[in-house]
């Protein structure tokens, strides 16, 4: 079954106001209307319903989607619905609802058919005047003509092969793409350099290992003669068991204690002078008395104030525990922060009260508006909108004069067509439905606003304090502000008390030191006696002075410590040399492993490099063969197919034009196929580009016939031709030939032709020329206009073939 567009319904789309229903189940559909009546909008709606986008107008305005809904549409939405037969069950009718710049719905065509429709079936008015310019525009990836020629000739695979082999023709181009091949070529010299470097590193590492072995043995043999015959790891394990660090640390600590004892014994431990003792005791008594006096006056006032604040702050420090000024400053900060918090709480409470009052006033106004809307809805509560939608759904099924509801022939009751009667009835029901829909929408919006105000009032009331809480905060703020003033007035007294605490503590410490001096001398000699036991030497003799005994003990400890220090130093140095030797041996093994790995890698890269060079040479030969084959195919098809079809169509519409537009034949086998346009004089000589050689009228004819030629050059996926006002700048001869061409395309080639024109005489002429010519043929004419209130109307006439009885007789 031949695919055909059967119907179109558009509501508030672009310049179409209201709902327009157009039947299109005919081989030819002629659309007429004055400028601005909506012809282009009608064809644009058809493009949207079929493809889901507006490719013809998006070139002119990328923001077109924001202006598709009619500016005076009551619902602020638009809709498009198009019916299609003959494409199969997988291609249902196209339906779209438009809300602002957003589309919801589904197109009637899939992406493959959408591309074919936009390029080979639909010629918009804005595209016709610049068709040749669009085809030759190189701002995108190639030209439209070039892409079509490749698709027609089946050169995509051959061009892909040539493009893929392009870099193989030149070493400089190959460098940027055959990255792995060039990496292999560049890696081979670096691998040779690395192997040379690794050989030098191996020789150096083996020499350093021999030096470290000799150095370690020279240090260790004087203390451990048996290590001469051991390996590096065995020597390291032996040294771990020979550590004298604990004994060395014990002797070091003992020497430090002996030095401290000698120092203490040299100090004068005789009794302090009596006058100095008396002075220190007097100062201690005076400091203690001053501190008690402060505690009975200022200290008492601070204690009482902190007890009052304890009900508000549980973690305040005590003002009479050595640091009264610190306690006062801490309390001052805490009270200041609490005062600021209480003031913020009061401010938020006042703000919440004001917000509740404002929201209640606003809600009262919305409730009054809601009552008015309910009264208006009662006055217009008729089901006209649903009835109009029901009748519109019947339009796509109207193919005859038989009523789809009662199965009765409508011509029995009226001379007018059933489809025209149904279209007029739908238009009369649309206005009342639109008003009721607007009122319902406004009521829903107002109800939502009232509910929103109720929620906001609830939230604001939750933030308002009760009278008890408000009174509690006022009392708390007054108490804390008074406490803040009292704390500020006690700053001087707190600092004086902190000074008195410090003086009393210093005096008590001095007194305790004097009383402890007399006990030191006796304790020092008792302590020195234990050193003889620890060192296993002779104890202090009865006639030996304390200083001489301590020096004897100190010399013994020093001699033992020097011996252990020398042995421990040799052990540590030997361990360091042995650890470095083990690391060096591991480094030698790693260098040998890297040498083996690099040699293996080099062998693989050398083999891959040779294979890559062979592949590049094969690619160059294949590139030459592909270019020669492409040149042969392009030359043959350009002369035998494309130019012949375009020439026949152009000469038919413009028989007096001496310059014939044509595709320029490529002159070289190298480079990609680029479709360019030229003109050929009737004697066979070449001219310039059609845009420079042809008049405005014939240039328009050249663009139109090129569109037809491209449409007819390939097997049609969609046998449709939809053209918006194609006869611009055409004279009477061109128009008559164009009408004959349309008749041929429709009657002989099976194309469904949809043409929109704005001149009434031309419309009448085309109606006569394209009228039904045989049984089953049909012509649908559509005249667009507007009612007195601006609503768009479409007067549709369905003309079926009728036998001429006078001729038949």
Could you give the distance between the termini? Answer: 35 Å
Low-confidence stretches: 268-273
Tell me the helix content: 55-70%
**Total number of beta strands:** 13
If you average the pLDDT, what whole number results? 77
Question: Main beta sheet: strand number and arrangement?
Answer: 6 strands, mixed
Which class best fits the helix and strand makeup? alpha/beta
- Count of helices? 25
Which term fits the overall shape?
flat
* Beta-strand percent range: 5-15%
3D architecture notes:
With 809 residues, the chain is of the alpha/beta class. Helices cover 63% and strands 10% of the residues. The protein is built from 25 helices and 13 strands. It has helices at 39-51, 55-58, 111-121, 125-128, 131-135, 144-153, 156-165, 171-177, 179-220, 232-240, 245-266, 274-296, 298-309, 324-379, 384-394, 418-462, 467-489, 491-517, 520-535, 546-653, 690-693, 696-712, 732-747, 760-769, 805-808, and strands at residues 4-11, 19-23, 28-32, 77-85, 94-99, 102-106, 122-123, 659-664, 676-681, 720-724, 752-757, 778-786, 792-800. A six-stranded mixed beta sheet has the order 7-10-11-3-12-13, sandwiched between helices. It has a five-stranded antiparallel beta sheet with strand order 2-1-4-5-6. α23 links the parallel β10 (720-724) and β11 (752-757). α7 packs across α20 (546-653).
Question: What are the salient characteristics of this protein?
Answer:
809 residues; 10% strand; alpha/beta; six-stranded mixed beta sheet; 25 helices; single chain
